[in-house]
Design goal:
- This protein is mostly helical.
- The chain has helices at 3-12, 14-49, 74-79, 89-121, 128-145, and strands at 59-62, 84-86.
- A two-stranded antiparallel ribbon has the order 1-2.
- Helix 2 (14-49) crosses helix 4.
- The longest helix is centred in the first third of the chain and has 36 residues, at 14-49.
């Protein structure tokens, strides 16, 4: 089997198309979730606790030359020769963003599952056979009661 023919069979299979659709929808969904977190949730968090950017927080573990001054910007503190900087702030910011993102995704999935459940719980209309059997039952009941 030739390479081109083999590739054509692979590309035309449903799995490749399903994967492509999943990637496209996943990218779009990621943008929606990012927008919800960045544009809706983070401003609320910022209003409650202040600006939620902790990326500039750090602790000086060692500074033999005493080059790191109090209040120095993280980037400048990292440039000081011999200084050992424990920069935990960016990790906090990323962790908080992750938790908020996970919460939003959880709530969206929960909402979608609830909508699916209500659709699934709706009773289906009786089939033609069921309607016919119901009519026969009702006729038999009416004949027996006469």
């Amino acid at each position: 089997m030739g390479f081109v023919k083999e590739f054509k069979e692979f590309a035309i299979k449903g799995n490749a198309f399903d994967l492509a659709v999943g990637v496209i929808i996943g990218g779009a969904f990621g943008k929606i979730v990012t927008s919800v977190v960045d544009d809706l949730i983070m401003p609320l968090v910022g209003a409650v606790i202040g600006k939620p950017d902790f990326s500039s927080l750090y602790v000086v573990l060692s500074d033999p030359n005493h080059g790191v001054k109090p209040g120095m910007v993280l980037e400048n503190a990292k440039k000081v020769d011999g200084a050992s900087i424990f920069a935990y702030g960016n990790f906090l910011t990323v962790g908080i963003n992750f938790l908020l993102l996970a919460l939003v995704v959880f709530l969206m999935v929960k909402m979608i599952n609830r909508m699916k459940k209500t659709e699934a719980e709706a009773p289906a209309a009786p089939t033609a056979d069921q309607q016919l059997l119901t009519e026969i039952r009702d006729l038999l009941k009416s004949k027996n009661n006469i």
